[in-house]
Amino acid sequence: MRLSSFFMPTLKETPTEAQIVSHRLMLRAGMIRQTSAGIYAWLPLGYRVLRKIEQIVREEQDAAGAQELLMPTIQSADLWRESGRYDDYGKEMLRITDRHDREMLFGPTNEEMITDIFRAFVKSYRQLPLNLYHIQWKFRDEIRPRFGVMRGREFLMKDAYSFDIDPASARRAYQRMFLAYLRTFARMGLKAIPMRADTGPIGGDLSHEFIILAETGESGVFCHKDWLSLDVLKDAPGFADDLQPFFDRTTAIYAATDEKHDAATCPVPESDLVSARGIEVGHIFNFGTKYSKPMNAVVAGPNGESIPVEMGSYGIGVSRLMGAIIEASHDDNGIIWPDAVAPFDVGLVNLKSGDAETDRVCADLYAKLQTAGREVAYDDREERPGAKFADMDLIGVPWQLVVGPRGLKTGVVELKRRATGEKEELSIDAALAKLAG
Ligand code: ATP
Ligand code: MG
């Protein structure tokens, strides 16, 4: 992408309406635009990152055996009356009446709809286990939307739903998602701690929230200090293995949200206990037959008996993750994207647009890097070098390749790693080999 034509409305001034750094940086980098309270348009730079995050979530769901589908955002109120949640959900639900006076709603979650799809088609225990997910916009009329995409009203969620014949296999489904979540967040460069959590209006008994520690987080949390240095995925099993031992040893290391934490019964001595704040990026629930019973989602068992299916649901805040990643990875100059979710792999900085030789070398590098499959932000604008450096740092591209007439006299370019600030001079070919190899 040539920045001279890329729609990236960066801001010089720090926006005053933003209270936390991720929100400020997303606005300054021209990634999002608020269109109503808690509702955002994703501008090209922000949308590139959103798609990367979404794709990692998708790949890990697929690897865990979940199957992707896509359900609509608009749902019928009648479905929610079946589960009893239409009245329970309260003001967070956006209720809509269509032209025929039918009551509809903008889905805040999809347990009812997926249960309805399930009961229409799945009739036998032989069709189980089944795990279906989608990545779809949700609407919750949050009382206090804030912190940009962190607590929006319209937000992108991955929600998966598992269906099993008995509690033991439902537990296995839960453990698969538990492992998939740890892998998903690790791929984004995040350390997410699974914490025992309240189940809230979704219901059920077994539940974990996945929390990124951050001072700006909205959740109060407690965990054993070992979590700060631990790499739980180091000896993690694969999905074909028995996940119980891994699950037991990971959930033995204490971590709980403040709703679940009780100082009186906490097994961790005070000296080993960390009290912190965190951002909830995922939440998983096993809720048994809470929806299948009232909605009559039953299958025939081996002896023809009717068995209400055992269910779980598994959410990831896809759009919230973008804020969480920035909270975890930035400096005074801007965002530092982990490679896996960066909007571009390489920022190519032309120090003297209009200089024939510099333009030629840049155009050549731009073409070759793209041929090698790299996504390149080529800053070919007629701007001062200082402004170009500042924008590259702000938008956080992992590698910056700087090309100017002075270096080219001796055939060298400069390569900078955004995360460390380390710079090296090297020949054009060596730079290409390093970035494209
Ligand atoms: P919270 O306690 O933050 O309101 P929740 O318990 O209501 O979250 P879930 O219903 O479990 O959230 O939704 C799954 C995931 O969706 C959450 O873990 C979170 O990452 C994300 N999420 C929930 N509400 C919002 C929101 N208003 N804006 C952005 N992401 C959200
Ligand atoms: Mg909520």
TrEMBL record:
Keywords, in A-Z order: Aminoacyl-tRNA synthetase, ATP-binding, Cytoplasm, Ligase, Nucleotide-binding, Protein biosynthesis
Subcellular locations according to the entry: Cytoplasm
Main enzyme class: ligase
InterPro entries found in the cross-reference section: aa-tRNA-synt_IIb (IPR002314), aa-tRNA-synth_II (IPR006195), aa-tRNA-synth_II/BPL/LPL (IPR045864), Anticodon-bd (IPR004154), Anticodon-bd_dom_sf (IPR036621), Pro-tRNA-ligase_IIa (IPR002316), Pro-tRNA-synth_IIa_bac-type (IPR004500), Pro-tRNA_synthetase (IPR050062)
Coiled coil: none
Domain of life assignment: Bacteria
Pfam families: HGTP_anticodon (PF03129), tRNA-synt_2b (PF00587)
Domain Aminoacyl-transfer RNA synthetases class-II family profile positions: 38-338
EC code(s) of this entry: 6.1.1.15
GO MF entry, a single one: proline-tRNA ligase activity
Reaction equations catalysed: tRNA(Pro) + L-proline + ATP = L-prolyl-tRNA(Pro) + AMP + diphosphate
Function description: Catalyzes the attachment of proline to tRNA(Pro) in a two-step reaction: proline is first activated by ATP to form Pro-AMP and then transferred to the acceptor end of tRNA(Pro).
Family: Belongs to the class-II aminoacyl-tRNA synthetase family. ProS type 2 subfamily.
Summary of subunit composition and partner proteins: Homodimer.
Full protein name: Proline--tRNA ligase
The organism of origin for this protein: Azospirillum picis
